[in-house]
Design a protein that fits this description.
This protein has about 80 residues and is mainly α. It has one domain.
């Protein structure tokens, strides 16, 4: 759970208002992709064990946040 909390902390530091250039957008998308991969790795690690409902809910919540943020960033890019 600590790893998921750490990923959540990193994601909370992302500020869409700071995305001004293509490089900013690229960095933000890379951070989101990396976070998504880490969450998937954590979930895979617990597939062989009885994962707690709390861990599953936290992982799913973070993945939904990543998807919403990615959608917002792509909207900024299109604007």
């Amino acid at each position: 759970m600590k790893r998921l909390d750490g990923i959540g902390h990193v994601l909370s530091d992302l500020d869409l208002a700071d995305v001004q250039t293509q490089d900013d957008l690229t960095r933000a998308l890379m951070a989101l992709d990396t976070a998504d991969k880490c969450i998937r790795a954590i979930r895979a690690e617990f597939r062989t064990e009885a994962a707690s409902d709390r861990l599953v809910r936290k992982a799913e919540s973070l993945m939904a946040l990543i998807e919403r943020t990615r959608d917002e960033l792509m909207g900024v890019r299109a604007a």
